[in-house]
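Case study.
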Amino acid sequence: MNRINPLYLGLLLIVILSLSIYKLNLAKNELKEVKLSYAKNLRLANELSSLRSVYKNTKKLENSLKRILMQNILKEAHIDVKFKKSGVKLSSLSINKKGLNFLMGKLLNNTYNIVALDIKKLSEQKASFKMEIQW
Amino acid sequence: MKFSRDKKIIFLDPHTQQVLSDEKLDIILSPSLYWVKKITLPLNNVRDAKKLLVSLFEDVLPAGNYSYSIYKDKAASVKENHSSFFIFAYEDKVILDLFLSQGILLANVSSIHFAQSELVQIQGALKINETQSIYFKDGVLTLVPCCWIEESGSLNLVDVKLTTHTITLQQFGHIVDNKSLINIGAILLVFIFLTWAELFIVNQDISKIENASSEIFVKHKLKPTIFQNKALLKKYKRIHTRQTKLRQDVSATLKKKNIKHISYKNNIFKVSS
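After joint prediction, the assembly is written out as follows.
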């Protein structure tokens, strides 16, 4: 009569099954959390990299600014350009209306981080211009 | 130190109360606890004959939950390709109930035998209780009332040498039969297997997503911690909001006439006309 009671074996199987289901539920909850965390990280990464590519792409911003400043329309303005590691300072003692319109149009329609701006009207056709851009 | 207890052979009969101590017991079942048939079948092995047990008892047994047992009667002379068998039917619950009523603990039961196989040496009739005797008739141990046989000896178990023909009682056989238990066990095993398989897949998914999450950091050249990245994102969002606002203010200002001075410093936009 030393044979193991089959009901004990059944009970053991039920216990193993219960533990397996419990462990599976834990794993499923962990999977949910990991998925949520992944989605958050992905959103953060996309937002961060897109904003960084807009405001922190120093080389691209610098090159595009140089191209704008080389335009003939701005030659008369004698724009003083001081490049720094953290940005650039632009100033002109006298810029004509057309040149100012062109420059402002180009700078505002691009994604420069303008931290300071000063435009003073000198006459109907002329103005003084100062701008600081950071990157 | 004593590791094994002495064994005692007892003859279990519903009409005889046993006097027991804490001993290991080899139990011989009285013929009143089982049904027996001696049959000759055109089979040579017990395994094949076992399959026929239920049908061989079909018309004989009263309603109940029976277990079956069989052994070959090697002493019988039969035709070629034929064998003689002793086949038994018994109700586990009836025997277990008798154990209970006689104070026999299942843990103390070492083996259970049929009187048919163990008392082959008896001569004539033996009285087993006040009203019944046993004797061999045509090779089958038969239970008869005492009054049928006038001279009956008493049962002496001292010289009995137990055979290997034993049975194992199914404790819950009357509730669930073995086949159902095996089916239930198989179903449980399948569920356990499926659960483990799913667990494996879920763990794989977790590891894949965690790897993908790490790759995001590398791919987008992010800072090592979420905290640093969140602070950086906050900074760029602030810049974006301010620059958008500046452009909206400039756009609104340019619609005005006679502007003399436009200034923007420390996030403050001023216009004077």
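Observations recorded in class. Chain B has three domains: 7-175, 179-217, 223-273. Residues 179-217 of chain B form one domain. We will return to this complex in the next lecture.
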